[in-house]
Amino acid sequence: MSKRGLLIVLSGPSGVGKGTVRGAIFKKNQQFSYSISATTRPMRPGERDGIDYFFKSREEFIQMIDQGKLLEYAEYVGNFYGTPLDYVNQMLDEGQDVFLEIEVQGALQVKEKMPDGIFIFLSPPNQDELRLRIESRGTEKPELIDERLNKAKEELELMKHYDYVVVNDTVDNAVHRIESIILSEHLKIKRVLKEINDNE
Ligand code: 5GP
To answer: CA 145 to CA 79: how far, in whole Å?
Structure first.
């Protein structure tokens, strides 16, 4: 059997900069795969179906749940978000490291199902910074900004279930920290021995 990839789960409150950090990691590291999520959230300006998300109706999403097509899913500020299972398994089987960028409830479901995953929590340097980032993004209505900030507080409380915390003080720092985590995880003795055993 060839080497199986690592599942890397990146979470963190809305506005913390997960997308930016992930984008910077992918620019430097072409070997990673990104699992595109399905969502019932309306498309934001500039987003593209099949690139940013697979945009689904509520009925379509519920059908995906019923057919067991999602590794995990969660409702977040009134919309469903979920990870298509087949893509993740296929990439891991091909030996590719796969990134999931998902909220905390979903990440905890993944941890139950795939405990070998690497769970990284991206945290803001401070709370004020979060509000500033969500407001300056300008994509959310004011009432939804407060809802997202409340959610952020809940998420910070669940940080303890993760393996690593990375502070996003600057994108470069966060990228460097995450790359170091992934490298170390690949070098862990239990993984290296498993690869040797699988190849024998
Ligand atoms: P946004 O609406 O800002 O794109 O995403 C809202 C939240 O949903 C973010 O924390 C994002 O990481 C999370 N999210 C995106 N895709 C998924 C997914 O497939 N599953 C889960 N559980 N959360 C997701």
So the answer is: 15
* Cβ of residue 155 lying under 6 Å from some atom of ligand 1: no
Q: In 3-state terms, what secondary structure has residue 48?
A: coil
The predicted-structure confidence for 99-108, as pLDDT tens digits, reads as follows 999 999 999 9
Distance 194 CA to ligand 1 centre (A): 32
- Fold classified for 7-199: Rossmann fold (3.40.50)
Residue 86 has pLDDT above 90, yes or no: yes
- List the residue whose alpha carbon is closest to atom 20 of ligand 1: 82
CB 80 within 8 A of CB 58: yes
Query: Checking DSSP bridges between strand 70-76 and strand 79-84, what pairing results, if any?
Result: antiparallel
**Separation CA 20–CA 37 (nearest Å):** 17
Q: Which helix (H) or strand (E) holds 63?
A: helix 58-66
Token match 């019932």: residue? 40
Contact 105, 154 (CB under 8 A): no
pTM > 0.70: yes or no: yes
Does the beta carbon of 101 lie inside 6 Å of ligand 1?
Answer: yes
Longest dimension (CA), the chain: 58
Domain map of the chain by residue range? 7-199
Task: Count CB atoms within 10 A of the CB of residue 37.
Answer: 21
* Average pLDDT score over residue span 161-182: 97
